[in-house]
Amino acid sequence: MNKIFSFFLTIILLASCSQYQKALKSDDVAVKTEAANKMYEDGKYTKAIRLYEQVAPAYKGKPQAERLFYMYSKSLYNTKQYYLAGYQFENFAASYPKSEKREEASFLAAECFYKLSPVYSLDQTDTEKALEKVQKFIDVYPNSEYLPKANVYVKELREKQEKKAFEIAKQYNSISDFKAALKAFDNFIADFPGTPYKEQALYYRLDSAYQLAINSIESKKQERLDYAKTTYANLMKFKSDTEYKEKADKMLAVIEQELQQFSK
């Protein structure tokens, strides 16, 4: 029985391959289109893409183009060619504003950019672009069935930006570029007020302010010590029992001692 099944399966596969090869070599647009649609329906998206690319120019401006370009875009999406798929879906949505597939195409375009967003440690240009695209979709389709997914994507993309900004600020502190660290932590705390990294950010801002003040030239030392003292107060105000309290208290003791010279 298994041998019979295998035999028929082989025949079907050979017939499918034969149809595809004939379509590739054919000059008949209709033959190519029929084969492309068959490949698409069978989940053979790579083969469908090759055929759709051959017939696409012949369909531009024609009524059949809408369905063809939708299936072509979905084939790119299903083969994870997200740059091309995102472009094609955006083009589809712009070209067919009255299409029943427009909302789906707009969402899938945004989703393609989301999928192109790299891990937080890499350059986040694509993350910013993805956030812009997904937010635009939400604004245009506030009642969309895809809204829950879109909201999840926005949350994940923003968390990635947040993590990146925090790690950059922390890196400035670790390489002793304390001026840059202070600016970066100030921006981070302002941009992400509800961040789960706030306690750490406040501590590292204190550490940066402390290091900058202690190693400062005399003409700027008092001002910087006062600022460091303020950053200590900000940390304590946010969380008086912070895990960094022992370290922070030691810094404050040094700051107070250093400030005594300016009170004489």
UniProtKB/TrEMBL annotation:
Protein's recorded name: Outer membrane protein assembly factor BamD
Q: Does the keyword Signal apply?
A: yes
User: Which NCBIfam families does the entry mention?
Assistant: OM_YfiO
Q: Which Gene3D superfamilies match?
A: Tetratricopeptide repeat domain
Q: Which InterPro entries match?
A: BamD (IPR017689), BamD-like (IPR039565), TPR-like_helical_dom_sf (IPR011990)
Q: What gene codes for this chain?
A: bamD
- Gene source species: Flavobacterium celericrescens
Q: Which residues form the Outer membrane lipoprotein BamD-like domain?
A: 34-221
Superkingdom as given in the UniProt entry: Bacteria
Q: Tell me the keywords, alphabetical order.
A: Cell outer membrane, Membrane, Signal
